TrEMBL record:
<keyword id="KW-0436">Ligase</keyword>
<feature type="domain" description="tRNA synthetases class I catalytic">
    <location>
        <begin position="15"/>
        <end position="118"/>
    </location>
</feature>
<dbReference type="GO" id="GO:0046872">
    <property type="term" value="F:metal ion binding"/>
</dbReference>
<dbReference type="InterPro" id="IPR033911">
    <property type="entry name" value="MetRS_core"/>
</dbReference>
<dbReference type="InterPro" id="IPR014729">
    <property type="entry name" value="Rossmann-like_a/b/a_fold"/>
</dbReference>
<keyword id="KW-0648">Protein biosynthesis</keyword>
<keyword id="KW-0479">Metal-binding</keyword>
<dbReference type="Pfam" id="PF09334">
    <property type="entry name" value="tRNA-synt_1g"/>
</dbReference>
<comment type="similarity">
    <text>Belongs to the class-I aminoacyl-tRNA synthetase family.</text>
</comment>
<dbReference type="Pfam" id="PF01406">
    <property type="entry name" value="tRNA-synt_1e"/>
</dbReference>
<keyword id="KW-0067">ATP-binding</keyword>
<keyword id="KW-0547">Nucleotide-binding</keyword>
<feature type="domain" description="Methionyl/Leucyl tRNA synthetase">
    <location>
        <begin position="139"/>
        <end position="352"/>
    </location>
</feature>
<dbReference type="GO" id="GO:0004825">
    <property type="term" value="F:methionine-tRNA ligase activity"/>
</dbReference>
<dbReference type="InterPro" id="IPR032678">
    <property type="entry name" value="tRNA-synt_1_cat_dom"/>
</dbReference>
<keyword id="KW-0030">Aminoacyl-tRNA synthetase</keyword>
<dbReference type="InterPro" id="IPR015413">
    <property type="entry name" value="Methionyl/Leucyl_tRNA_Synth"/>
</dbReference>
Length: 482
């Protein structure tokens, strides 16, 4: 039996949002992780997509004078283009309006209904259309949703309910014993604490929202948009034989849906829950929350325009540890770009290739550097296995500093001929290793570095110690930015 590929997902984003760095953060992280696994020789698949049903979309489409489907077709394309620009190597861009997804959602809900985990009841509450969720009294400020600055609508309707409360024991067990792994650990503890307080059954249908997937056993209701959206992971996984998901990457605001409601739905449908859910933190911009109202939203396109694609990817994941909250601002980004990329790898690469270009047939050396690079590789891989992108980047930066230090000690510019060649091969080995480690983060830069050394592809890393280089000069990898 062949092992199923490692299945990674990002949240499917609500099409009505403009793609911003929050979306890009999760998606780039997922891409880096899947590239890392593939480079190691593991099969990995990455699913991305858009969430397209619900009252908020119907409202926005009506405002734009468009049919909902026409409206979402345009918006989904914006996300797809953004991920292509950011060089995201996804296996499918799923949309909740895709016919295979709609069919899977109907079968899935029917299964839960047949198993007796769905009942009818009256829902009464306050619904924020902006959030597409019910708000509790504690969440409101002066009777308004603080995030959307509008009063939620009082809502009373006959709904179908999912009997979430029946899964309390199973959820606690599986989360505690890590059949469902929740990371970081403090998030796991938060979730367990909340489940221990008790689980309420949840409304999963709407009689008043026509823009959605009809309930299979009662087409007068549509399926609540969140339930419809969560099933996207299963739609792909089931079709491709990759279920269960190995890793759901999510922002911490939607962890409850992914770590509690989603596994319970799967259990109710007789399917395996996801293996791991990792919730990352949020960006503030110069100390304030990123918001349309404040006008401080940073888009992936702005990052790409300023720094280029690879540097944009790098800057997102090197800003602060994955899982924590952190701050982002233009001045700091420019500083980081110049320090790590222009002066760091860019400078080392330029100095080394300038010296090496006159030599024919330098063989990448292992020698003394070999064991040292192996140690770096061990730390780098251990960091990425924990999704610690921040630490993995620090290890890369240490290796670059190591290269700079060795260069100053060995002074290859002060000698000539064979003596120079001998000093260079160890240094070039470090450069090639840096390019290898950077590859998941900055794929184009790695290829450029290898190209300038005459190494054709990533697999040649494994041949190190044997590869014969044909070094040539290329343009500066990262010109300084003011
Ligand atoms: Zn709201």
């Amino acid at each position: 039996m062949t092992r199923k590929p490692y299945f990674i997902t990002t949240p499917i984003y609500y099409v009505n949002d403009v793609p911003h760095i929050g979306h890009a953060y999760t998606t780039v992280a997922a891409d880096v992780y899947s590239r890392f696994l593939r480079a190691r020789g593991d099969a990995a698949v990455l699913l991305v997509g858009t969430d397209e049903h619900g009252a908020k979309i119907a409202e926005a489409a009506a405002k734009a004078g468009k049919k909902p489907k026409v409206y979402v077709d345009e918006l989904a394309q914006v996300f797809r283009t953004t991920w292509e620009k950011l060089n995201i190597q996804y296996d499918r861009f799923i949309r909740t309006t895709d016919t295979d997804h709609e069919a899977t959602v109907r079968t899935f809900l029917q299964k839960i209904y047949d198993s007796g985990f769905i009942t009818k009841g009256i829902y009464e509450g306050l619904y924020c259309v902006g959030h597409e969720k019910f708000m509790s009294a504690e969440e409101l400020v002066d009777g308004k949703c603080p995030e959307h600055n509008r009063a939620p609508q009082p809502y009373k309707e006959e709904n179908y309910f999912f009997l979430l409360s029946k899964f309390r024991k199973q959820l606690i067990e599986q989360i505690e014993n890590e059949e469902i792994e929740i990371r970081p650990l403090e998030r796991k503890n938060e979730i367990l604490g909340k489940i221990h307080q008790g689980l309420q059954d949840i409304s999963i249908s709407r009689a008043s929202v026509p823009w959605g997937i009809p309930m299979p056993f009662d087409p007068t209701h549509t399926i609540y948009v969140w339930i419809d959206a969560l099933i996207n992971y299963y739609t792909y996984g089931k079709l491709k034989g990759t279920w269960p998901a190995d890793l759901h990457l999510v922002g911490k605001d939607i962890l409850w849906f992914h770590a509690v409601i989603w596994p319970a739905l799967l259990m109710a449908a007789g399917e395996a829950p996801p293996k791991k859910i990792f919730a990352h933190g949020f960006f503030t911009i110069g100390g304030s929350k990123m918001s349309k109202t404040l006008g401080n939203v940073i888009t992936p396109q702005q990052l790409i325009d300023k720094f280029g694609v690879d540097a944009a990817r790098y800057l997102l994941l090197s800003a602060f540890p994955f899982g924590a909250d952190g701050d982002f601002d233009w001045a700091r980004l420019i500083e980081k770009y110049n320090a790590d990329l222009a002066n760091g790898i860019g400078n080392l690469h330029a100095r080394l290739t300038t010296l090496a270009v006159s030599h024919v047939g330098i063989v990448l050396g292992w020698d003394d550097e070999l064991s040292e690079i192996r140690r770096f590789r061990g730390r780098y891989e251990a960091a990425l296995e924990q999704l610690d992108f921040y630490l993995a980047i620090q290890v890369i930066q240490e290796l670059i500093s190591k290269g700079d230090k060795l260069m100053n000690e060995k002074r290859p510019w002060a000698v000539e001929g064979e003596a120079q060649k001998k000093e260079l091969h160890g240094l070039l080995q470090i450069l090639a290793a840096v390019a290898y480690f950077m590859h998941p983060f900055m794929p184009e830069t790695s290829v450029k570095i290898w190209g300038s050394l005459g190494i054709a592809e990533i697999n040649e890393f494994k041949k190190m110690g044997k590869a014969v280089l044909r070094v040539h000069k290329i343009e500066n990898l990262f010109p300084r930015i003011q």
